[in-house]
Structure formats: C-alpha cells, structure tokens
C-alpha cells in the first residue's frame, strides 16, 4: 500500500493531524445533532403531545433514510471525492437540524430526521475514507480511535447541554436550535478540511487513493466467511441495543427513577465519556495482545445483566456525579455503576469489532464489507426504537407506572443475549481451523 505514496512528496505530519482535527470536528457536530433529540423527549411529549411511538419513529426515520443512502453513498463519495462529499453531507446535516427545529409539526420534524439520516451516515463513511487516505501506512488505528473519541465527545456534549445550556430547556425548540448552531461547526470544519486538501494538492503532494470505502457490492456480498457474518450479527444486535437505549435513557432516568433532567443527562453522558477515554486505550491493548473475539465475547457477557440491574436492583445511595465545567448532580449508585459498565462495553466492542473486519476480509473487499455491515446495522437500529416505543406505550410506561418499562428492559436483555451467542460462535470459529488470526495477530507478530 505504501507504494502508492511518493515518500518524498508526502504532506507533513502537521497537515495530517490538522486533517484529522477538521474531520473529527465535522464528526463531533454530526454526533451532537443526532443525540440532541434525546434530552428533549419529555418536552416533545409535554409541549407537543408526541407519543413514545412517534418519538420512536423520529429515530427510526433516520435509520431508514441511512439504509437508502448507504446504497449510493459510497458511489457519491468516490465520484466527487471526500472533501466535497464531507462538506456536502455536513451541509445536509445543517439543513436537517434547522428543519427539525423549525416547526412543532411532527411531519416536519420527521422530514428533518430523514434528511439527517441522508447526511449523517454518508458523512461518517466519507470521514472513514478520508482517514484511510491520509493515514494509511501511518498511524491509522490510532487516528480512528481519536476520531471516534472526538465523535463521542459530540454525543456527550449533547447530554451535557442539559447542564451547560439548562436555560434553553424551558421549551423543546431552543435546544434543537443549539444543535443547529453546532451543525454550523461541522460545516466550518469540513470547509477547513477542503481548503487544507486543496493546498496539499496544489503543492503537488501525493495522498494516494482511499479504497472505495462503502460502496455496496451486491454480487460479492454473500461470499464472506462465517466469522464476518458473526461480527455483522454482533454489530446489529450490539448497536440495536446500545443506541436505542441511549436515545431513551434520559427520559427513562427522569420518568422511572425520578431524576432531574440535568442528573439524567449527566448519567447518560457516562456512556460516551467512558468511551472517549477508553476506546483508543482498548484499541492499543488489543493491538498488543490479540484475543479479539474473546474481548468481544467478554464485552457481550458484561452487557447481558445491565438492563435487568437498572430494573430490579435497589437504587442504592445517592452519589455525586458530574465533571468540572459541566456540572455535578446526584444520582443513584446502581445507575451510575451500570452506566460506567455499559460505557466500558461501548468502548471495548467498537474498538475491537470494526478493525477486526480488516483481518477477515481482503483489502479490496473491505469497502463492501463495511458498507454491508453498516447497512445491516441500520436495519436493526431502525427496528428497535419502534419496538421499544411500542412496548412503552402498550404497557403505559411513565412516572406513575414505572413497571411499564420492564418489557423494554427485557427486550434489550434478549438482544444482549443474542450478542453473546454471536460473539461466542465467533470465538469458537476463530479458535478452530476457520481462524483468521483474530486471536493471534498482534502488533509484535506483524513486525
Ligand atoms: C463507529 C460507529 N459508528 C456507527 O456505527 C455509525 N454507523 C453510526 C453512528 C451514529 C451516531 N450518531 C460507532 O459510533 O461506534
């Protein structure tokens, strides 16, 4: 791969890290906009009379749109290049955020979420392609880890907005306008990346081409190995559990556990906060020791009891949670521990799972492999909020009937159990003759 680059004419490391910063800022905005809906769930209900089912639809609309665009997103990125694609998709996200904030009508908000799905997921794909282009043969995994950390900071900031922007939470609309402003950061960062890459191109530096990263190759998609499909299956159930749980978490902590919005936001932010710190560290660790499928199985095992723990365990004493500059509040110890554990799993599994595909699939099919994996992920992730919204409505979940949340917690647990089965099957396969080296390949073994 390095042969693609002319070593004498490569851009400086400073330029590379500047590109990482700009692309990561674009991702920061992307993740913030998506997560900004969670802290206003109760306001959408009280101010606008939305049901849980409608709110479930708002999230699922994002995924349905993403599924559709993923079929052509790779082509758009390849055809127009990453700098134009990132800027274009960031602008789509900005328009989506504005549309979502503009009117109290459910249909308009739904259109905003659809537009967000059309912009946000291809932006993530384009960002991955950019990192591959700029960091291949260099610090690629580390760059991915840092990129994911900054993205998660976007998610955490949306949760923290319940504290640092608490005056906005007197109505459903102002927090969504704040998200629109953050989308402006994404567009600005994308333009800065465009300018940087233009300068590099004018300076006759060579970047090499990224692989076509996420173009869906229908013909070859069914010929991947069993290990690949176990990873895809784990990816589907893992994200179909964690992302919807996160989407409903702030409201759930408020309604079922009586927390203030600030405390619920802080508690929910434990998930991305843990991931910000731990994701690159887990990546470095796994690179050193291998044992990737074992790590995935261990993560799935830790996740299994967590939703039942928040449901059935006594809340325990109130403890102070929070961060300097963001704020502090009180939350039950049990919830705090569960969120930290979930944060650990949310760091471990993505840090191991996505790079593992690169060991299983040949480089020239990596784009199709990631596209297919993301495509399947979106379908699972689209379906679950609908089911959870349906269960919460059916069992009349709310502050006066907190048992109404139990069915959805069991539903998450069943998904987590499936994740454990798939990761265990992967571990079995990778310890046998069908192994791809997930357990054995380490940075040392590749020297
Ligand atoms: C790396 C992975 N990203 C995804 O799964 C994206 N397809 C969706 C992210 C949506 C967050 N707004 C991750 O974040 O773990």
Automatic annotation (TrEMBL):
Major location (coarse): membrane
Domain spans labelled Major facilitator superfamily (MFS) profile: 19-431
InterPro entries linked to this entry: MFS, MFS_dom, MFS_trans_sf, MFSD1
PROSITE patterns cross-referenced by the UniProt entry: MFS (PS50850)
Keyword Transmembrane annotated: yes
GO cellular component terms, A-Z: lysosomal membrane
Gene3D superfamilies per the UniProt record, alphabetical: MFS general substrate transporter like domains
Family as reported in the entry's similarity comment: Belongs to the major facilitator superfamily.
Complex formation: Homodimer. Interacts with lysosomal protein GLMP (via lumenal domain); the interaction starts while both proteins are still in the endoplasmic reticulum and is required for stabilization of MFSD1 in lysosomes but has no direct effect on its targeting to lysosomes or transporter activity.
PANTHER family linked: MAJOR FACILITATOR SUPERFAMILY DOMAIN-CONTAINING PROTEIN 1 (PTHR23512)
Protein name as annotated: Lysosomal dipeptide transporter MFSD1
Record organism: Aliidiomarina taiwanensis
